[in-house]
Amino acid sequence: MEAVHPTEALRQTQLFNALSQEHLETIARRAKMRQYFPGETIVWQGQPSTALFLIINGIVMVKSLVRGRENILAYLMPGNTFGEVGILENQSRSASIVTLSEVDVLVIQRDEFLDILHRHPTVGVELARILGRYLVSANRRLSNESTDTRLILLLSTNPEAHAADFGALLASRMYMAHQKPTALLEYPNPWRILDGHALDKGSQTLRHPDGFDILFPQEDPWLPFSTRTTLLLDKLRDQYDQVIIHLLGLSEEVLPMLLEHADQVILFSDPSPAGVREVDYMLRVLKGRIRQEETSLVSIANFHAAPPDAQPDRDVFDLEIPLTSGFPLLHFPVQPTGALSKPLETVLQSCLDRLERTSSIGIFIPTTTEANQKTDTSAYTDRAMAFMAERFGGATCKIANGVWNSDKLGLIGEVVYIVHSYITQSDLHRHLDEVVDFVKGLKRELRQEAMALEVNHKLTLI
To answer: Is 39 helix (H, G, I), strand (E, B) or coil?
Structure first.
């Protein structure tokens, strides 16, 4: 495969992407390219922090030895950097970095990096943002240790998409599955869900016959909106183990705080052209804002709210609720939820499964051997499906058109099969090395220059 130029590698990172081409080229000349084989240790825990490393290709493990026990803290992929914290603090490295595959890195020595920070303030600003995220993540982990509350954020594109009705079904299934306190809330206007029906005076909670609560909290209007949202979240986490909040659209007043605590974000829309465009836009926004290794993101098309000529768009929607008889609506006074259609049950169960599976792995199976010889690789796709299902409980496969650049033959286009699984973080740590070895085996058998592997939406070449 064509090697990534150091200048382009710098441009693809958050630290350096705001710099001009001239400045990137200057930094690239001062950096050094290094290559490592699988199983090599790039830096050791306890060593002095003498350089910043930028991963150009491959996967590395961040491993820490504490009281004689080795822990995998994270996996880093192309575009990630490591070593910046140790350079700033002039301290030894807090963890070892070990390669899981062949890895190419760009190395910037400590003195060079400090000089870059002085010459280019924008790099310092981006570094501050990165370190700020580290701090927020650490605080979030400490906060989450005191609560097991699961928060699902349900975003809809328009009031007619029946998102609140789907939220009620989801709350019902969650309560029946776990028998834990469960709440459904529309925010920031909780009263809209009543649709004109009266609520008992002073009441803030309506118990659904399926066991979950529909909430109508009364907030102090004199408090700043951010404070009200924070207090509400604290109250919900104190009283409930499972919470679903329905929000109409991307409200910048509310969304950042809710995303910070969300375990799952569901985009719910009708599949009209306008709905498809809105969901596509929302997906692009959310992918840049959620913690993809901790928060699952699901998009659902509800054909019950669609115009008659609506067509499915599987490039935008993960799941579809087809037009069937019996999509239940949340009427007041509320009634127990009856039997649901099998497709709707499948969508609900898929959401619940993905709530636990916030990480993802995708293996790209080519349909050519030796770069440009077309061949039937369906047997390899079946093997990959079985391999992933055995380790992660299931796998799906979809067809895509791919284009890549061969060192020998130039630009080549082909059909590829993508075998994909949603997995838990613990399963990722347990089995990622096996997945990499499996892909290496396929690469040899298919006589490929390289094969693509996607981990948590980041693509690397093996």
So the answer is: coil
Predicted confidence (pLDDT) per residue in 219-252, tens digit = 777 777 777 788 888 888 888 999 999 987 767 7
Are 52 and 42 spatial neighbours (Cβ–Cβ below 8 Å)? Answer: no
Strand, helix or coil for residue 118:
helix
Based on the number of CB atoms within 10 Å of its own CB, is 14 exposed (0-12), middle (13-18) or buried (19 or more)? middle
Full strand arrangement of the beta sheet holding 458-461: 396-406, 410-423, 359-366, 452-455, 458-461
Question: What is the number of other CB atoms lying within 10 angstroms of the CB of residue 78?
Answer: 21
Beta-strand relationship, 96-99 and 41-43: antiparallel
Q: What is the largest CA-CA distance in the chain?
A: 76
In eight-state DSSP terms, residue 221 is: T
Question: Residue-wise over 267-306: b if at least 16 C-beta within 10 A, else e?
Answer: bbbbbbeebbebbbebbeebeeebebebbbbbbbbbbbbb
Give CA separation, 84 vs 203, 284, 401, in Å.
53, 28, 38
Ramachandran quadrant class, 89 (left: phi over 0; alpha: psi -120 to 50; beta: rest): alpha
Tokens of 166: 């789907």
CA atoms within 13 A on the CB side of 39: 2
CA–CA gap between residue 153 and residue 141 (Å, rounded): 19
- Tens of pLDDT along 17-76? 788 888 888 888 888 889 999 889 998 888 888 888 988 888 888 888 877 777 777 888
d(CA 73, CA 59): 14
Are residues 366 and 461 in contact, defined by beta-carbon separation less than 8 angstroms? no
For residue range 305-343, list pLDDT tens digits in order.
777 777 767 788 989 888 876 778 888 778 888 888 888
Give the integer Cα–Cα distance in Å for 232 and 46: 43
Half-sphere exposure (CA, 13 Å, Cβ side) for 200? 7
Using CA atoms, how far apart are residues 163 and 187, in angstroms rounded to an integer? 12
pLDDT, mean of each 10-residue run, the chain (462 residues): 69 80 84 89 87 87 80 82 81 85 89 86 79 62 59 87 90 91 89 76 84 85 74 85 86 80 90 88 86 83 78 81 79 82 89 83 84 81 92 86 63 79 84 91 87 84 83
Q: Are strands 60-66 and 96-99 parallel, antiparallel or unpaired?
A: antiparallel
Q: Which two tokens stand for residue 311?
A: 């067509």
CA angle 456, 461, 462 (to 5 degrees): 105
Question: How many whole angstroms separate alpha carbon 203 and alpha carbon 188?
Answer: 18
